Amino acid sequence: xxxxxxxxxxxxxxxxxxxxxxxxxxxxxxxxxxxxxxxxxxxxxxxxxxxxxxxxxxxxxxxxxxxxxxxxxxxxxxxxxxxxxxxxxxxxxxxxxxxxxxxxxxxxxxxxxxxxxxxxxxxxxxxxxxxxxxxxxxxxxxxxxxxxxxxxxxxxxxxxxxxxxxxxxxxxxxxxxxxxxxxxxxxxxxxxxxxxxxxxxxxxxxxxxxxxxxxxxxxxxxxxxxxxxxxxxxxxxxxxxxxxxxxxxxxxxxxxxxxxxxxxxxxxxxxxxxxxxxxxxxxxxxxxxxxxxxxxxxxxxxxxxxxxxxxxxxxxxxxxxxxxxxxxxxxxxxxxxxxxxxxxxxxxxxxxxxxxxxxxxxxxxxxxxxxx
Length: 372
Hints:
Structural class: alpha/beta
CATH superfamily of the largest domain: Glycogen Phosphorylase B
CATH class of the largest domain: Alpha Beta
Number of domains: 2
Order of helices and strands: EHEEHEHEHEHEEHEHEHEHEEHHH
Largest sheet: 7 strands, parallel
Strand content: 15-25%
Shape: elongated
């Protein structure tokens, strides 16, 4: 294995707007560039704002865009072929389904290029034609990288992807989340009171898979049956936000649910909370939960996907059977009532999160893609 020779690495992704996959690409591109590799980034979908592009430290001329209009945009596909012929990357590290489709199709013209794809979606999110393509395209792919062992197993079982093609590499957590900053004294700045018991969820509001409706129903039962001091902070934005705001209003708890919208300083919001809550109906390894744990928050979460690979029931939080609202409420109330337990879980949450660093992530990824 030759990990010393520097590679020409092309990171390919739909765009560099705010998103978990996009943030991962920025971190990885920067780390590979710092380690002496020749790094370029190629974007595939037009977008008015590419907010995360400003965080790249690679030369600006190393960032390109081929704005595809659809899967059937032959003109843009020809431009992609010409781009790859001119730049001659050793490795393409591709992200998100549209880009993964295009890069793996282009691989047919470039047998020498090693294509690695990162899968962020679990099979249940894929249509039949996507599943068929993923199976066939796996034979054009050096490795399929997933961020949880549970996702690996689901790809092997449900999509019949050969196990040798699958690789688990956990995502990293930004160093700022490990600084253990406590922003509780800033609660009034966020519209909260000093003695509130604050639950926080951080996630996109574009999909029902995030289970926000369950979270609002749980918050309603907690507030009405236990304490008006319970506050739920929902950080994130998306097309379902107005629907969720109306749901909270209709249930009479709009004063207890704070819709914070998308935030650049998520660590400040996490730093003034007491417990992280996750009601997703399916997940890989949720980075938002890991970030919260790095800041010392116990978590209460539905046991889906890779959640149990970081969250240990009764140790650093509580794992709840999916859709079990009563069990979820019980977990929240136990953490709320027992300050000593909360302290122990907080310490163990931090210890867990320390396994998920960008340095660990990069070490595994570099070793994988530089292998001969």
